[in-house]
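Example 3.2
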Amino acid sequence: MPTVDEILLTDAQRARLAEIRVAAESAATKPAAYGSDMDLDALGTAAARNRVASLASLEKQIREIAAEVGMDTSEEGRSGSYFQLDRTPIYEKVAAAFDEAIEIMSTEEALVRYPEEMLDRWWWRAVAPEQDKYTALVALKQTEGYFIRVKTGHTVEKPIQACLFVSESDVSQNVHNVIVVEDGAEANIITGCTIHPEVRGGLHAGISEFYIGKGAKLTFTMIHNWAEEFHVRPRTVIDIDDDGTYVNNYIMLRPVRSIQAFPIARCRGERSRAVFNSIVYGLADSCIDLGSETVLEGAGSRSEAVARTVSRDRSVVYSRGRLIGRTDSCKAHLDCRGIVLSDQSVQWAIPDLASEGAPGAELSHEAAISPIAEEEVYYLMSRGVPRDEAVSMITRGFLDLEIPGLPPALRRQIDEAIAATAAEGM
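Structure, written as tokens:
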């Protein structure tokens, strides 16, 4: 397949690519607004890998690791799959039953196939390449990423799945994902991001641009499994049209050196809606800076953000939430709660509400950080439960958010991971 440089582009399209590059170059050393900084020059380039004929043909260890972040390598319960190993999309497939409803490919292939749509409507249109050094890194040194499109009017019953896998140390995986759910379409996407157990240091920088059409709905579940010396920098913007709904579920239950993510939902359409649910367990020396922002512009737009965080060991956790109301008829709520299990751990809950020229906007928040309630521990101990097990049970219940739209098998998998993490933490 030809590259973008090899296909015939209009002068306007080439000018757009040059504009993106110039903007990115201007931010090549610009630190992020939040979170810890890191030296990008110390990282190498991820290697190319060979394609595979099926997910079942992956090495057993890779299959098992991918399963922990929601990948069904049998594909029986999935409508489509994408798997990227380091810099290479080694597998993508749409099930025959959904061939008319879904497109899945690398973003490089999407640029070649649909240069007009990609460059005019979706490519670096939601996320700014000059936001910081991490967006600039992806714009200047991209290592693929996925394009998923759900076509107009189609409801996809089985989840679509994607996995971004890093198998070598001290490299940066710089992916740019574009997800389009066209008017009246509905889908559930499960994305897992993870690394090989032998990987120590490295970076995953992920740009994700979502475009939710009129009356469309997307439930997007992201599961992260990293390691104690690994850095993660996602940058995400979601554009939601009239009557569109976006539901984001985020789960991270393993250590990470540092992560900084602050996805932004733009509810520009009338009666548009954004929902963020997150479950985070801070372990070891993790530095975790997570949150979400919703900008409510469309009449009748709505948003809810619910975060549950537990921190132990020497972890530092920031839980941010921002709501910006720009129309009188919008309504939104933040619910941010944390439990601290260690006298060496630090948690911050940072709600941020703004009404911008919208005196009728209804914005509210609840934020709380606390220890385990001793009366609950004593109650369980009075029933014969050992203290450590009682604390584990309470922690598990605290993290057990009722997340809508998850397939039953994935719900069980998350429940098991929460239970295991809570037990290990004791």
